[in-house]
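pasting for the record
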Amino acid sequence: METAKGKTMNLTETLSKLESLGEEKVRAMHIKNGARENIFGVKMGDIRTIAKKIKTDHELALQLWETENIDARLLAILILKPKALSAAQIEQMVASESFTWAADWFYNYIVKEYPDKEQFREKWMNSENIMLARAGWSLTSGRITRAPEGIDIPAILDRIEKEMPKAAPEIQWTMNTALAQIGINHPDYRVRALAIGEKLGIYRDYPVSKGCTSPFAPIWINEMVSRQK
């Protein structure tokens, strides 16, 4: 970001800018949803505005990430050069972010767009690190939806049926997405996907805002399939 003197803002100045934009209401909302205390509470729109002014600054992005401040990490995600990250860096960054909002940003902006993301999928699915496993199941959902060739769907359903009830909540969410995407996109496995969803009952009573689709797999599957007709 350019200052009035035309100099690029450094880490200290960027953090100061973020802190000045923090709102207690936003901070409290994120903490209620699982964020750690190291957060200013900057609105997403304000973070995007700063990112647009900075454009790309990979070095600053890495410095922001190292602070572990959630607002700083969200900004870092938007100004990183994804292709400049090594596979080891990506894995370390995924493993280090426990707030699911920030983790999902990193997945959608960085991991999902990484050219060789398939190298991570099965490795992460079998990881003992919760956030790596969560991202591994997200990658599997993507394959199920967009590139299912070579994916062993019956084996995935077996794992979901066996493992999802005892999985950490963070992992349950993306495993459930994989289950729903199988039911939505693969008619041959729809009956079994629906049966697993009913049997497990995960998210059956999940509160949903008006106009939104329930994450309960049978409802989600049936709703999306009805839209295909």
